[in-house]
Amino acid sequence: MATSTENSPSFYSHNEMLARLFHQMALCYRYLGEEERFRAQAYEKASRTLSGLKEDISGYAKDISTLDQLSGIGESIAEKILEFLQTGKIRTFEKLKKKVPEELLPLLEVNGIGPATLRYFHEKMGISNRDQMEEALRSGQFDHTKGFGSKKLENIKRALKMHKETQSRMNLWEALKAGERVLEELQKMKGIKQAVLCGSLRRRKETIGDIDAVVTAAKKDWKPIIQFFVNMRDVGKILASGDTKASILLAQSDIQVDLRVVLEEEYGAALLYFTGSKEHNIQLRTLARDKGWKLNEYGIFDLKSNHRIAGNTEADMYKALGMDYIPPELRECRGELELARNHSLPKLIEQKEMKGDMHLHSTWSDGAADIGDIAAHIQSVYPNYEYIVVSDHSPSEKIARGLQPDEFLRQFEEIDKINRELGSPLLKKGIEVDILADGHLDVGEDLLAQFDWVTASIHSGFTRDNTKRLRKACENRFVHCIGHPGGRLIGKRAGYPVNWAELFKIALDTGTALEINSQPLRLDLTDELVKAAIEAGVTLTISTDSHALSQFSYMQLGIAVARRGFAEKSNVLNTLSWKQIESFKKKKLKKLGLP
Ligand code: DGT
Ligand code: CA
Ligand code: CA
Ligand code: ZN
After folding, report:
1. Range(s) within the chain of domains with CATH label 3.30.460.10
2. What's the pLDDT tens digit per position in 469-502?
3. Which ligand has the nearest atom to the CA of 274?
4. Which residues of the chain form CATH 3.30.210.10?
5. Where are the alpha helices (DSSP H) in 330-404?
6. What residue ranges line ligand 1, CB within 6 angstroms?
7. Whose C-alpha lies nearest to ligand 1, atom 9?
8. Ligand 1 atom index nearest CA of 210
9. Using CA positions, which residue lies closest to atom 10 of ligand 1?
10. Residue 525 preceded by cis peptide, ω within 30
């Protein structure tokens, strides 16, 4: 379908398409081995730069020298960008694809399978897709092969399984972006009264199988609406097309979108039905039946008289069933029906209540933006924020260019200077300090004492039980918060084992906060752990862990996880002023019995 040129704007932005292309090129180079290591890194970096860019890349693409100024874009990659913008293709990539087993490359993204293993599979065993790989593993072909011990085989099997799951589900951020664009397109169609995204996307699940959209319209408009939908730009494939519904795959991403058209007066009933979850709906239907009613996608009806009791809005329907309105994020059968009946649902936290972001990276370590640009961006886009905590990496994080102690001191000077220029203490001095294998931190106490806010995180040892390590970090007087406490990466790495009940108790007893990290592949703590942490009385933070200006908008993902975990404003520390955060820190010292 449509390739990208400046004259035919595409569903995906240039930045996204190039970021994806460069990522694929990086995978090709990784596969080719050690000699191409630097190319692999360069393309990966360019990919990150592009996905973090605020403006469309074509704005920079007057000539190679303007592109060259972007961090991570050298002359050779700048040429590729121009080539892509002009022709919609990159010849080098077309050639590169012929040298590698393309279908196997995505497996490199999963922990447990490296390039050498893949090359062995392909070159020595003639395997070029995952089905063949699974078959070879199943049939025991490797069981006596040198270099493939049982542990390694287990890892490969686990990685394959995890990979299969990611292939069938997308992350919440990707789904939100695609969903927004589908809505934008639909809103251009005459006759559509309301258009709304339902399903797991409206419930804000961490991964999404497909996108469900419901639109309302007069019956005479249904046919043209369905026609419009299946002929939208960037439809890659039509899966089904009927009188009231249709399904398509978006080009390039293969994301499935299901559309359903209903009458205006069916809006509430359709919304409720297609939002799910399925289990929540089943429970509602049972409640209706107990009252002698029937509940379906058209409304609630009396079984005897067939009289329609409710259905225009969702709120009507919950009310008819004797309940308060249940926000979509809670519709997972985790006790919400009972609470709604007792009028005691939590008042879920909202993004507008956030007063700051407690975890972000600058160019001092592995971030893409410098502190001055970050401050300006926050002031213009997040006027509600009273503070943001610059939290670059500590020395052990070599790949992420962790800072040495003297660099932190110089960073403090820069922060003070920018705050003076801003005329407000927007920037706070923070650090994401590494928790070492034995639970100690990799920065001395003299330095730690000088930060406004210390987040301690685990970045190694992902397979063992890390409860003890985290306990030790919580017991450290200088640690205010544990970053991404579970350590998982969705689709790439399972979280390490933790005794959560024990950790929640330690966090509470030591006055340490636990983070909800809003990066799309982290979302860590998970919604279920958020709920358990709150029940245990633990204080949470919600932060973006931003590595680029565009990532500050991940806050909405962290908020979604918090809401799914029943969090209210009072459970989240960074809904408070900095003065109140200072008193949270003082309370920690008191709890530890320190002055
Ligand atoms: P996903 O797409 O796997 O992330 O999850 P959902 O929840 O979006 O599921 P999906 O797309 O299969 O269906 C969308 C909604 O439609 C679902 O949340 C509830 C409703 N639904 C679908 N199939 C059924 C069904 O067989 N019975 C009932 N009661 N509701 C259904
Ligand atoms: Ca769905
Ligand atoms: Ca669906
Ligand atoms: Zn981290």
Report:
1. 170-262
2. 999 999 999 999 999 999 999 988 889 999 999 9
3. 1
4. 278-345
5. 336-341, 371-381
6. 199-200, 205, 208-210, 212, 273-274, 276-278, 281
7. 199
8. 2
9. 199
10. yes
Nearest residue (by CA) to ligand 1, atom 28, is: 278
Q: Is pLDDT at 10 greater than 80 in this prediction?
A: no
Residue 533: the pLDDT is: 98
Provide the pLDDT for residue 11: 62
Q: In the numeric block, which tokens belong to residue 394?
A: 């500590």
Nearest CA to ligand 1 atom 16: 274
For ligand 3, the distance from its centroid to the CA atom of residue 488, given in whole angstroms, is: 27
pTM score > 0.85 for this model?
yes
221 to 109, 227, 264, 488: CA distances (angstroms): 45, 10, 12, 47
For ligand 1, atom 13, which residue shows the shortest CA distance?
199
Q: How many angstroms is it from 228 CA to the middle of ligand 3?
A: 19
Whether 3 shows a pLDDT value over 50: the answer reads no
Indicate the top mutation candidate among 171, 281, 289 to test ligand 1's pocket, ranked by most ligand atoms within 8 A of CB.
281
Range 215-218 contact pairs with CB under 8 angstroms and sequence separation of 24 or more: 215/186, 215/259, 215/260, 215/261, 215/262, 216/192, 216/261, 216/262, 216/263, 216/264, 216/266, 216/267, 216/270, 217/191, 217/192, 217/193, 217/261, 217/263, 217/264, 218/191, 218/263, 218/264
Nearest CA to ligand 1 atom 24: 278
44-53, 98-107, 339-348: which has the highest mean pLDDT? 339-348
Atom number, ligand 1, closest to the C-alpha of residue 200: 8
Q: Choose which residue among 278, 294, 317, 331 to substitute to test ligand 1 binding: the one with the highest number of ligand atoms within 8 A of its C-beta.
A: 278
CATH of domain 170-262: 3.30.460.10
Closest residue by CA, ligand 1 atom 30: 278
What are the phi and psi torsion angles at 340 (to 5°)? Answer: -65, -35
Q: What are phi and psi of 365, to 5 degrees?
A: -110, -115
CATH 3.20.20.140 domain span(s) along the chain: 351-591
Fold of 351-591: TIM Barrel (3.20.20)
In a 10 Å sphere around its CB, with 0-12 CB exposed, 13-18 middle and 19+ buried, how is residue 250 labelled?
Answer: buried
From the CA of 277, which ligand is nearest?
A: 1
Q: Percentage of residues in the chain with pLDDT exceeding 70?
A: 98
Q: Look at 116-125, 198-207, 584-593 and tell me which has the smallest mean pLDDT.
A: 116-125
278-345 has which fold? Beta Polymerase; domain 3 (3.30.210)
Fold of 14-167: DNA polymerase; domain 1 (1.10.150)
